Amino acid sequence: FALRRRFAWIESNYDKNRLEEIIKEKKEKIGKNIKITDTDIQTFIQACTSLNDKISKEPSLGPAYQIGHAFFSEIVDIYDNVKSEGKQNPWEVAKKVLWSISVRPTLDAYCGSMETEQKKQFIEGCKNAFLPQVKDKGKNSGSKQTEEELSSENE
Question: Is the dihedral of CA 36, 48, 50, 131 positive or negative?
Answer without folding.
Answer: positive
